[in-house]
What we know:
Order of helices and strands: HHEEEEEEEEEEHHHEEHH
Strand content: 15-25%
Strand order of the largest sheet: 3-2-1-5-8
Number of helices: 7
Structural class: alpha+beta
Number of strands: 12
Distance between the termini: 54 Å
Mean pLDDT: 85
Radius of gyration: 27 Å
Amino acid sequence: MIALIEASNRAAQVDRLAAWLLAASGFVVLLVFGLIVIFAVRYRRGSKASRAPLPIAEWKVEAGWIAGTTLGFLAFFFFGARLFVAMEDASGPADEIRVVGRQWMWDVRQPNGRREFDTLHVPLGTRVRLRMTSEDVIHSFFVPDFRLKQDVIPGKEVLLVFTATRTGRFPLFCTEYCGSKHAQMKGEVIVQRPEDYARWMANAQPPAEVLAHGHNLFLHYGCSGCHDRGSIVHAPSLEGLYGATVPMADGTFRRVDATYLRDCILNPETVRPAGYPPVMPSFRGVVPESDLTEIIAYLEGSVAAP
């Protein structure tokens, strides 16, 4: 049996909730079995125990039992829901890392474009937000020592937010059966001191090469035909777009970030910039998740607003 350690800020919270749930469940089990034993002995055949009706109405006993268990359940639900929401908090500053699950590996893209497979480097003591999706089937991202588990679903982006509290190497598993090599879909999370992480990041692939690859994909899928300067199609220009706030057709405003670009490419019907006709086709099922990540990285790095 492998002993787990607490290596993230979520670990103690999950352990505390699990301990209270175990204690409450144990109390209820002992109470019920204790009452069964007491009643079996007290009201055995031939005993002189009184069988007179209860001094209070039976419905009151039943109502009290139902109310007590319901309130207990709601208390656990409340604290569990708070923890669940905190693990998917999209607000606030954080180092944002993209993770794509596919048969049968974890494809990780660091904030500066560095790519790694079945390994996730994170800095100690820094809030990290993973943006995760799947390219094929449902996977499940599970780091036991962090007490983190999140299903990764095709066509949907899910978040996982945590802060590592201990340096070292921690096993990473897929815990959703995803095919014949499911058991081999393993990796590790490497937590480094901030200065070590910064040095590791500095050894990343040169940004120019990352941008060049994304640019090639941008051309390959025909994006330049509508969005490059001089295009005859009335489409939004991408120059200085990333990071800017743009007006929408419904009168609202949206900041152009990775989520906005993703929606534009996969779900253009949900994104209507003001002044442009709804002619953008959906590339869902056309652009693989890995290529989509490359294109968004290219747009982040080359068309940022000043």
